[in-house]
Every structure is written in structure tokens, then in C-alpha cells.
Amino acid sequence: MFEFVLVAGVHSITTVSKVSVKAGKSISIPCLYESQYINHVKYLCEGYYWMSCSYAVKTNKADPSGKYSISDDKKLKIFTMTINQLVHKITDYWCAVEIDGEVDDGQYFQLSVSSGTPSLYVDHQRITGYIGESITIRCHHSNSGEMKWCRLGRNCVTGSSGSTDGAAVTAHMRHPNVFTVTMSGLRSKDSGWHWCAEGDIQIPVYLNFTEKPITTSFDPRILIILLSVLILIVIVLLFIWFILRHGKYY
């Protein structure tokens, strides 16, 4: 295993190592790459051995079957692969980059697809929050390994509090088998791929933080006041009409 990993150049691409997921579901896997690969073709390669893995999907060629999709965010230097219609088995993949005239670069990861509840999962793999506010992620787990919260390509928080790339993080396990992570004081630059980890298993989570829409709330008391004034005006007009109408007979 380690011999062919070294050939693939693990220091140029960063991704998860092992993900547990339920059969029939979909999973998105982010792959962070170095700046020299910005304009290169990226692809997902399926197979345990790097030198014999087979193309699944590439950034310059869509998968007609619909099982795989891939996108490349050149600004963040992350390409993301989504695998659909997962079946019950252990599958080996590589995040890979084409290099003309040389051996392609790749980083290995494994999907452990089970028919039952995954050993580590989140309620939603993509979550939206608002800048300046807080957001909470619940990581459900079934084992007793060390839990941590990480940002892709950055640092991890392993204790009850810390920060990931400057974002304040608190974590606790007040409920059995639920690792709860709260990020506060959210900034636009905190958007991106993070993950929960338990031992050697991770589950990626994409967080998107935007400005909160400005909404105007209507106070129902204002409506009551307006209706009261309108009713008063109608009463006064009726009174004046009554006086003028009956004044003709005097």
C-alpha cells in the first residue's frame, strides 16, 4: 500500500481517508490541491492500486450514467466529486490530477458502504449559515474513538473549544453518540469544506456562510391603530352627513 501511495505524491492533494455511508445514498468528497494544478484536468479514479485504477469521471468529460459528477473550484483549489447510487461494499478511489508527460498525481480514499446506519454521519452534508451568527453541526457516531472537527487543509479542534483557521469552535458530547460542534462569529471566509472525524473515519461537511437577508417585520399593533383611525374617520363623516342631511328640514 505505502509503496504506490508514495508514487502518487500525497503531499500535493489532500482529502479524507475513509468515509462511512449508507447504501442507496450519495456522498460528496472534496479534494484540495496545490496551486500548480489549477489548470490541470482532475478526475476520480476507482480501484485499490494507483497504477491500475480506472477513470470514473473527469472535469473535461461528464459521466453519461449519472453515477458520478465532478466540479472544480479553481479559486479555492478544491475539486469535488459526488458519487450516487452507492451499493453495499467497500470501494477504493483516488482523487487524481492529470500531468502531461509525467505520472499523474493522486490521493487515496475509501468508501465503506453499509446497508445499516453508518458508523459516522451528519444530518446534512451541505449547510447554510449567516455571517456574524452561529451554526451547529451534529455528528452521529457509533464507536468510542476520539472525535474532532477539522477544516480541509487546515487544523483540527480535538477538545471542547478551539478554532479552525480563526473561526471559534466549541464542541461537546452531552447526548450519547452525538458529537455537537458549534461555530460562532461566522465570516464569509469560513465557508468551505470541513469534516467530523472519529479515529480514521471522516464525514465531509460543506458550510456556506452568506449575508442574512434583510426582512421587514410588520407590527400587528400598527394595523390595529390604522383600522381604529379609519373607523373613527368613517364615524365622523357619517355624523357630518347626518347633520347636513337633516339640517335641510329646519
Automatic annotation (TrEMBL):
PANTHER family with a match to the protein in the record: CMRF35-LIKE MOLECULE 3-RELATED, POLYMERIC-IMMUNOGLOBULIN RECEPTOR
Could you tell me one molecular function GO term of this UniProt entry?
Answer: transmembrane signaling receptor activity
Report what the protein is called: Immunoglobulin domain-containing protein
InterPro entries with a match to the protein in the record? CD300_family_receptors (IPR050671), Ig-like_dom_sf (IPR036179), Ig-like_fold (IPR013783), Ig_sub (IPR003599)
Where is this protein chiefly located? membrane
Q: Where is the Immunoglobulin domain?
A: 16-114, 124-210
* GO CC term, one of those recorded: plasma membrane
Please state where this protein is localized.
Membrane
**What are the UniProt keywords, alphabetically?**
Membrane, Transmembrane, Transmembrane helix
Print the organism lineage.
Answer: Eukaryota, Metazoa, Chordata, Craniata, Vertebrata
Q: Where are the transmembrane segments?
A: 222-244
